[in-house]
Amino acid sequence: MLRRTLSAMAGKVLVVAEMHNGKVSPATLAAVTAGMKVGPVTALVAGKDATKTAADVAKVKGVENVLVAKGDHYENGLPEEYAPLIASVVKDGYTHVFAGTSAFGKNVIPRAAAKADAMPISDVTEVKDDSTFVRLMYAGNVVCTVRSLDPVKYATIRSTSFERAPLDGGSAQTKEVEATKAEGKSKWIEDTVASSEKPDLQTAANVVVGGRGLKNAENFKILNELAEPLKAAVGATRAVVDAGYCPNEMQIGQTGKTVAPNFYLGCGVSGAIQHVAGMKDAKVIAVINNDADAPFFQVADYGLVEDLFVAVPKLTSLVKK
Amino acid sequence: MFVRTIPSHFTTTSPLWMRVMVGVKRVVDYTVKVRVKDNKVQCDGLKMSVNPFDEIAIEEAIQMREKKLADEVIAVTIGNKKAEEVLRTAMALGCDKAIHIVTPDGEAEGLEPLVVAKIFQKLHEEIKPDMWILGKQAVDDDLGNTPQLLAGLLEIPQGTFASKVEVSDGKVKVTREIDAGHQVVELQLPCVIAADLRLNTPRFPKLPNIMKARKKPIDSRDVSSLGVDTKPRLVREAVMEPPLRKAGIKVKSVEDLYDKLHNEAKVI
C-alpha cells in the first residue's frame, strides 16, 4: 500500500471495457484491479446506446471516471473502429491502456498500440510497478519480468491472475467523449454464441475437464452428470475439441482459455504442456486416468489410476449423497 | 486497390487473383519443454520447427491457390541464418517464393512483434500483397499480437483467430473464434488474417517437393537494410521457471478420492 501511494500512483489508466450479455465482463473487472496498482482508473465504454452500460461501469469499485462514446459502429467490438477511438482518448494524458485478455482485448489492444508505436504486453499476470510487468512464455514454462520503455503502456490482463473488482461500491463521474467517425473497412455479420445454462468456464469455482480418454461425444454425458451437483463448468482438451466432441470455446490451454478455479478435475486428460498452461493455477487439482504414467499425475494434488468410465459415475453418486 | 484482375479469357473460375503473403517463425518445437538457466531461456540444441500456427497459415494460403483465389504465395521469415529451413519447409508445402530477413545470431526469441510488424509493413509497401496470413500466436513468446500490429500499422482490417476464411467479390468473410462461440465479420481487401487452430489441418511436405524446394531461390536481405529500428521496447529484467507445485498423492479408490476432496481439500 505504501509503495502504491509513494511512487506507483503517477499513472493514469484507461481500461477499455467489454460487455457480455449486458454485464461488465469479468476480464474487465480484473483489468480494473490491475489498473488500480498504477493509478486512478478511467473506463472507456463504447456502443450504440452506451448510457446503461456506462451506468453499470460507473458502479464498479475502483473506477473513478467513465468515458462514453456513442456510435453504431462500436456495437460489436470491431478493432478497426475501437483503435481510432482509443487513440483519440489516450491523447488526454493516459499512461496505461489495459483490457482483459479475452478475444476482444487481444484483438483491440495491439491494434491500438500500433497506432501509438508501442509494443503491447500480452496477458500480464502481475503488475510490479508502473512500467514492470510479469507474463508467461513457452506455454507457462517460463516466467518473464519485462520493463516497458514505451511512454504509454498497452497491455492485456490475465483475468485469473487478478481479483475481480466488485460490481458495486463505486461512484464514477461519467463524461461523454466525441465518437470517432466510422472506418467502414470491416463489417460485423453475426455472432453464433453457444447457449449454455452451465456456469461460465472462466469464472466457475469448479471445473470438470474431459480429455481424449472420453473416446466420444456421448461420453461427455458422464462429465455433465458430475458437473451438475458440483455446480462446475465443463471444459475440454484440444484433442477432444479437434475430434469434434465439443465446441472450441470449451478448450482450456495455451491457445484456449485460461482457468484458475478452486477445484479442477481432469478425466482422461494426459496433461500435455499446452493443456497444463491453461489450468495449473487451479487451487486443487485432481485427476482420474487409467494410465499411471500420464504426466498429469505430477501436477495433480490427488491422482486416481482407474478407468474413468467406472470412477466418474461412482464419484457422481458419492457427491450426490 | 491492390487487386489485380486477370483478363477474362485466362480465367474461368474467379476474376479475383490475389497475392498472399505468409509469415513463418522458427520456434522451439512445441513438444519440447524449455529450461531456464542464468536468467536466460536455454534454446541451444533443442529441436526447432515451424510455429504450429504458421503451418496452418501456409496451408490456408496454398488452399487458396488451389482454389484459384490466389496466384502467388510468398513466405516470409525473420531470423538468423538457420531460419532459412522454415522457408524451405514452406516452399516444399507449396509456397512460390520466399523472403528471408536475416538477423544476427543472439537472443533466442528474435525480434519483438512490433519490429516484425514494421518489417512486414515495409514488405507490404514494396510487394503490395492483397492478403497477409499469419499464425495467431508464436508458441515461444506467446504474445499473439503481430497480426494486429501489422493491420494497425497498415490501417487495413484484421480477421483474428480465424477458423474459416471465404473470399468472394473482393471481400473476405472470416469466421472468428471468440470467447462464447463464433463471430462472422466481412473485411475489405487488403487485410490481415490470423489463423486459429481450427482453420485447417496442415499437410505434410512430400519428399519430391522437399527436394524441389531446395533449389528454389530465397530472397535474402539483411535486417539492417530495411531501416527499421530493432531495439526492443520490452526489456527482459528476469527470466525464471515457474514455482513447482508441491508433489501430490495417489489415492487407491474413488472413495478415497472423494474423502480427500471432501474432508482434506474441502472442495466438494
From TrEMBL, chain A:
FAD binds at residues 212, 237-238, 251-255, 268-275, 289. CDD domains: ETF_alpha. The keyword Heme does not apply. Keywords: Electron transport, FAD, Flavoprotein, Mitochondrion, Transport. Residues 13-192 form the Electron transfer flavoprotein alpha/beta-subunit N-terminal domain. GO terms for biological process: fatty acid beta-oxidation using acyl-CoA dehydrogenase. The electron transfer flavoprotein serves as a specific electron acceptor for several dehydrogenases, including five acyl-CoA dehydrogenases, glutaryl-CoA and sarcosine dehydrogenase. It transfers the electrons to the main mitochondrial respiratory chain via ETF-ubiquinone oxidoreductase (ETF dehydrogenase). One of its GO terms (cellular component) is mitochondrial matrix. It is found in: Mitochondrion matrix. Heterodimer of an alpha and a beta subunit. This is Electron transfer flavoprotein subunit alpha. PANTHER family: ELECTRON TRANSFER FLAVOPROTEIN ALPHA, ELECTRON TRANSFER FLAVOPROTEIN SUBUNIT ALPHA, MITOCHONDRIAL. GO terms for molecular function: electron transfer activity; flavin adenine dinucleotide binding.
From TrEMBL, chain B:
Gene3D superfamilies: HUPs (3.40.50.620). GO terms for cellular component: mitochondrial matrix. Pfam families: ETF. Residues 38-230 form the Electron transfer flavoprotein alpha/beta-subunit N-terminal domain. One of its GO terms (molecular function) is electron transfer activity. Keywords: Electron transport, Mitochondrion, Transport. The keyword Transport applies. InterPro entries: ETF_a/b_N, ETF_b, ETF_beta_N, Rossmann-like_a/b/a_fold. CDD domains: ETF_beta. One of its GO terms (biological process) is carboxylic acid catabolic process. The keyword Electron transport applies. It is found in: Mitochondrion matrix. It comes from the Eukaryota. The electron transfer flavoprotein serves as a specific electron acceptor for several dehydrogenases, including five acyl-CoA dehydrogenases, glutaryl-CoA and sarcosine dehydrogenase. It transfers the electrons to the main mitochondrial respiratory chain via ETF-ubiquinone oxidoreductase (ETF dehydrogenase). Belongs to the ETF beta-subunit/FixA family. This is Electron transfer flavoprotein subunit beta. It comes from Trypanosoma cruzi. The lineage of its organism: Eukaryota, Discoba, Euglenozoa, Kinetoplastea, Metakinetoplastina.
